[in-house]
Write a structure and sequence with these properties.
The chain has 9 helices and 10 strands. It is an alpha/beta fold. It has a single domain, classed as Spore Coat Polysaccharide Biosynthesis Protein SpsA, Chain A, CATH 3.90.550.
Length: 247
Amino acid sequence: MIYILLPCYNELENLKKIIKKTNKLSSIGSNKIKIIIVNDGSSDQTKNYIIKLKKKSNSKILYLEHKNNMGLNVALYTGLNFFLKIARKKDILVSLDSDNTHPISLIPRMISLIENGNYDVVIASRFQNGSNIQGLSLFRIILSKGARILFKFYFPIKNVEDYTCNFRAYKYLVLKKSDLIKKKFFLSKDFSIIADLLINLNKKIKMIKIKEVPLKLRYDYKIGNSKLNIYTNILKTFLLIFRNIFY
């Protein structure tokens, strides 16, 4: 079984497009697809739309909800924790953003690398040959490259260049064995949780096998404004580095 995790906050129009694309996949090889949606306190019509869609979607939709906006870190925890409770040892989880910037068409390749290449984690990377970024400001691109340099210097991981992209495929067993999917690990981390999870998976799992594939990031497809607070994220990134070096 393939589970696709979509944490969302006021992303209804983007979410509609993602689910439509996912339904075109229907299944990947012999694997059926289930979509886990974590509605992180949205004030738009996300809940009503998903309740109606559940009845006619090709892929089964599992709907989880926070009454209040808790942040990406807690939304990811809710989804990952739910996955570990219901999945079996051969299942795979794919996490991605709900803003329609990540290509759904890349998922079958990521799944194939885990199933046939025996990788534990596959990352859609902005820093591999063949990757491309469209619609993102120069400032944001510079920040991403700066974060890459910092993480590579302090926390080198074999075969990893992109520490902060949430578009990843995980084996069930690597998440289960890590013992990281606990609420206390996810608290107070906002967007920095994406890098923190990867860094600590590498610490916890001996001989972890990670593979990157080129990502064509289409930020120009996104409808609406970004939820990322750049300056808060910079602060959280430095706190992440400090915490993982000294604790």
